[in-house]
Amino acid sequence: MRQEEKKTIQAAIVGALLFLFIQIFHTSLNRLDNWDIISALYLIVGCCTVAFGFAIFAQGWLFFSSRLSKGRLYVAALFGGICIIDFLHTLGFVAFPLISSFITPEESRWLLTFSRLSSGLGILFIFSREDKPVTVTEKRNVFRIAFMLIVLFIALFVFIHSAVPELFTKPWMSTLKQFVDLAVLFVYLAGVAAIVFPGNNEKSASLLVIIRALIFFSLGQAFFMTPISGGNIDDLFGMLCSGIAYYQLLTGVYRLTIEEPFYEKQLAEERINYLAYHDDLTGLPNRRRLTQRVEEMIDAGETDTNDQFSALAIMNINHFKNINDSLGHYAGDLLLKLVSERLSNEARSSEELYSMGADEFAFLMTERASLGECLARATELLRLFEAPVNIESGEYHISLSLGMSIYPGDGETAEHLIQNADTAVHNAKEQGVEIRRYIPAMQMKAKERLKLENDLRRALERDEFYLLYQPKVQLETEEIVGMEALLRWNHPKRGIVSPNEFIPLAEDSGLIVPIGEWVLKTACQQNKQWQLAGYQPICVSINLSMRQFLQPNLAGKIHTILTDIGLDPCYVDLEITESMTLDKETAFDQLKRLKELGVFISIDDFGTGYSSLHYLKDMPIDRLKIDRSFVSEVMEDSNNAAIVSTITSMAHHLKLKVTAEGVENKEQLQFLREQHCHEAQGFLFSKPIQAAEFETSFLKKAPLGASL
User: Fold this and answer.
1) Which of 231, 296, 373, 663 would you label with 549, given CA atoms 20 to 30 Å apart?
2) Is the pLDDT of residue 305 over 50?
3) Is the dihedral of CA 134, 137, 139, 143 positive or negative?
């Protein structure tokens, strides 16, 4: 492209210098004005010009009929007619036998003027309009019309020649010709402007060649114009420039007709082939390419006599969904690029990195001496992410889980090796460990997980979920001041399924949203029923999932539920986790809308997430819940005791209430009282129990006359 731009600029400069040079030495050149020599040269150059014009016509008529566009078709038809007129002009100008009696020199000049005017107007019309494909039928019609017009022109010319033989020799015709010649020059220059100045700044190489043709057409016209011409030598140079212009136009049309469509098709095929085997976001080879590569590795391994191992490690970013949901998809895509760059920079010889889609990457290691070497290398890869990553304006610590399959041993085909490594990484995430090597038992567990997910999809409609309630105790008075609603699943065949098992499945599948709405509605209905039964009103705490919290219409949904049930929002406490506040602006906006309803907001499992104390002081929240992991060892671990003491002290300064989870003995209770913790819940008071048992064990009748 750059080279064509340089050629176009050079053509304009050379043409201008040539014209100036000839005008400067015009007198000397006129001394060489030998008509016999000039006419012979003129005939040769003119015939070459006609040949170029016919070649332009032939390209449009013969090549790629099914791919012909309107622009290429019109150019072919235009110059198919023009080359005939130029041929008649050339023969008439050199007084070719037989022709000279029908076409005088003056008439031949008018033929040339008409030819140039037609070419200029045609090029201006064609290249100033949007190009569109045409059908074969349109092509035939256009060429028929072009043929009829050229026949009509020749017939008209013959008629004028016969009827008014002296017309072209009249003085006023000479003046008219000067004006027409100037108009032709203007039309050529307008054609250059029409191609150069439209909105698309970058021109294709073929259009730049067309511009060069117009430059030489303009230069040739300058030589042909009567006011400048001082002899036949000018006509010769004019025809020579026209020949160069025709050749440039032939080259440009050839590129438009043949080269560019082929090149564009080749680029499109290469792009499609690239996208078929590469990830568009990271640029890494994708799963399809990995499958090919592993198949090649297995085929090579069948003939390899060396006792070497190859390992396929699949890595998954932990909690990527939380980051993607809370910070947005742009931040998620940026994180994927950063992870891919960090792993790519670490890859050595005989190591290859692939993108598996979403937040998974595959790392292929070949020519390893032992299984221990493969595991050691996997550990090194995970250590790369001990340093935080910069996403937008903040630093975030991330971790990866890794599953590995070994060849030979863990699969005989590429698909088996990939599937087994993928099974291993999901097992690692479930078990909360960094690295897992595939073992056959994992496959059975993966099938069980899939079956459990299918059962989970039907559990809601089959009414298999139920709620348990755990009381919250005010430490100062030891009165029941609230309760937490906890979801349980009674599977028809497996019995009670642990929340640790089915809640992650619900979150991954998106089922957590309808399940969460069911929990919210059921807990509020139960609380309202107790109030209507005359029990003293208390607050019910309900956990929100990340997907629920990020719903734009969450506040509206909760308002509708509470209005339908008739429950005062002050008896509802919504619990969120720290990870939901990663995107500060979104979290603040959502919390503000929820607080406007009149509900309470608590941050659950505080101390285990990512909360910034700077933002915590401005959050519209009411309570911090200390995670049970700190409370359970508060008497044995001084660090945990210090953390609990710090959280309670900070909460008091921020005028927030503090609830401790997982209180199991009186020593823990006494410690919490000494720290002035407001509330607590745990097995010391009660395990989570059914609604009926909670009603009989903990609820008190409201005083007479108390309003709800």
Assistant:
1) 663
2) no
3) negative
